[in-house]
Amino acid sequence: MADAGKDQHRRGRYRQPLARLRSPQDAEIVRLAVPAFGALVAEPLFLLADSAIVGRLGTVPLGGLGVASQVLSTLVGVSIFLAYGTTAAVARRLGAGDQRAAIRHGIDGLWLAAAIGLAVLAVGWPLAPRIVMAFGGTAAVSHQAVTYLRISLLGAPAMLAVLAGTGVLRGLQDTRTPLAVAVVANAANIALNATFVLGLHWGISGSAWGTLIAQTGTAAAYLRVVARGARRAGVSLRPDRRGVTTAAFAGASLVLRTLALQAVLVLMTAIAARDSNAAIAASQVAMRVWNLFVYALDAIAIAAQAITGRYLGAGDVAGARVATTRMIAWGFGYGTLFSLLLLVLRPALPGLFGVAPDVRSLLLAVLFVIIAQQPLAGVVFVLDGVLIGAGDQDYLALAGLATLAVFCGAAAIAVRADTGLTGLWLAYAVWMVARFATLTLRSRTSRWLVTGAVR
Predict the structure, then answer these.
(1) Phi and psi dihedrals of 174, rounded to 5?
(2) Fewest CB atoms within 10 A around its CB: which of 133, 255, 270, 426?
(3) Could you tell me which of 103, 250, 256 has the C-alpha nearest to residue 169?
């Protein structure tokens, strides 16, 4: 009996560390984050596939793709409130037990997305050359960028509808459907791009048409899923003017926060474009690699939005706190894992994109900076998701402006010191540290823990 007691004590001793590695929230985080990972990775894979295929055309088309992609990424980034704000609002209403109101809010978000998309197309098409010229690239790179941008703008309503549709499903705690849609869309994008660019020799325009067709099909799939859910809940698909207006004003602070983030990315592209064709090409590939890993970390942030919104909607402050702590641990852990993975893959990445030797040397140097940032980025993205899920957009907007000022100072120093592309990416790393500081300070207070169906 004594031996049995010792045995049991030993087992208990070994189980305690294992227990600390587990949490009741883990199953929920995994259920939401794993499918979200696949859906989020699909978007950078769209651009990675474009880069890999267009890279075969040469440095100038790849640079043009870099400029145009940054413009489109800015558009999507500024409009990300259609996904993030919708996720948080729908999750709150779901947590409060009102599924009809949750779906109604989602439909209003889809109508808002359609209106914004049409406005972007109407304004962006004639201004495309001026927008591209603002990046300061060479005439050859700018010409390629305008070609890609104008074709892609035809899909602006579809791009934004995808954001809103994704937000609806995430808020309803469904991340599996976006994953299934993303997998099919990404496969179609690769096939279409390869056919149009490499098979039919349409050049960079072939890449734009392939991505446009894939995005339009994705939007159609989301609309069908949301419409089916609305019919089951007895919710009308017609636009509610008051609801659409409320959704627009509710996202104002989130738009300001996102504009600050996107300003950093735009400045990165503009500074690299003014440096040289090799610098913009290397920075474009580096940004695609960065986005692939950051979006993977953002999967936990998506889970944070949905989980935090639902907990606070149900009035469970303690649950929101515990889940936040757990998700921070997940973010840091997977950020570290991605750093190690990227370190192993680093030597092979330039060959994957078929870049020229001068682009290769720049890219290899920048990748070290990206590798070092991954653990920190994991925490930053999780906390960003938590505060978005809590509806704490006003603070996020102020923090975004403050960290933008930090980046501008660091980038100015890098340019004056003539540190090249590596110095520019080090300025980006300084910006990430500033974001970590502002988000961590906020998470330690209780000001963001506001409960109820509507914040």
Answers:
(1) -115, 105
(2) 133
(3) 103
C-alpha distances (whole Å) from 267 to each of 96, 137, 264 are 42, 13, 5
How many residues are recorded in the chain? 455
CA angle 411, 359, 426 (to 5 degrees): 25
Cβ-based neighbour number of residue 361 at 10 Å:
15
Give me the residues of the chain with pLDDT under 50, please.
1-21
Q: Cα 188 vs. chain centroid, distance in angstroms?
A: 21
pLDDT for position 15: 41
R_g of the chain computed on alpha carbons: 22
Report the distance separating Cα 430 and Cα 373, nearest Å.
10
The per-residue DSSP string of 133-199 comes to HTT---HHHHHHHHHHHHHHHTTHHHHHHHHHHHHHHHHTT--HHHHHHHHHHHHHHHHHHIIIIII
- Residues 373 and 291: their CA atoms lie apart, in Å, by 12
**Which pLDDT score is estimated for 47?**
67
Q: Which residue, 257, 290, 244, is CA-closest to 388?
A: 257
Lookup: tokens for 434 = 């500033």
pTM greater than 0.90: no
Query: What stretch of H or E contains 231?
Result: helix 204-233
Q: Are 160 and 117 in contact (CB under 8 A)?
A: yes
- The residue type found at 55 is G
List pLDDT tens digits, range 155-170.
Answer: 999 989 998 898 889 8
